[in-house]
Amino acid sequence: xxISIANNLSTVADQIRSACDSAGRDIDxxxxxxxxxxxxxxxxxxxxxxxxxxxxENYLQxxxxxxxxxxxxxxxxxxxxxxxxxxxxxxxxxxxxxxxxDRLKIGQRLSDQRPDSKAPLNICLQVNISxxxxxxxxxxxxxxxxxxxxxxxxxxRLRGLMAIPKATDDPxxxxxxxxxxxxxxxxxxxxxxxxxxxSMGMSSDLQPAIEEGATIVRVGTTLFGPRPPKTA
Length: 232
Ligand SMILES: *Cc1c(COP(=O)(O)O)cnc(C)c1O
Known about the structure:
By secondary structure, the chain is α/β, with parallel strands linked by helices. It contains 9 helices and 8 strands. It has helices at residues 3-23, 41-49, 60-69, 88-94, 104-113, 143-151, 171-188, 206-211, 221-224; strands at 31-35, 54-57, 76-79, 97-101, 121-126, 156-162, 197-199, 216-219.
């Protein structure tokens, strides 16, 4: 087994445990999603040997190659990157979760293209919680109506909300964005049943995210080390 991925995993597990302790939360209510974008299939295999089963990918072709190569392992694949509407079919066919649904058209296509032989595709509605001009995600005020529409699509199972808050050094601002997403999920839950997921928190802000209610944290760098610059 790769010593460094195993060591890194124990570091992340400690961080999750201490955040759960300080928030009085059960550690089993927080899923660690290993973000494996730019990592080789071999590194994913090593991470699996270290105990991880959920992997997050941003780039479709790279992900499909890894999914094919690792077909002998029982892994759950989460798509977390931007989605082009002409690329929904392979996502619907090969992934277990999609965190980055931010418009109805994408949800409709994923629902239509989900194979009948598979369980409905788990999705999160991505929200541009910090209202950044350049960021993906629906605006917070659009989320309730979109969530209702997405929850009615037969090929999908809407699980909750995902956000990537604005990068900031201000811990108060950072925590507020996570709290905003939590409150939004509570509001939407008045009209939509079965929502159990807040996908928020990455390597640098996992602790406040968990303290504000994250149920999935998406961690790349702390597990695998700094990413090599993406070519092409
Ligand atoms: C890359 C990425 C992550 C992981 O970021 P790290 O800082 O490496 O932990 C999480 N979520 C999304 C959507 C990403 O694109």
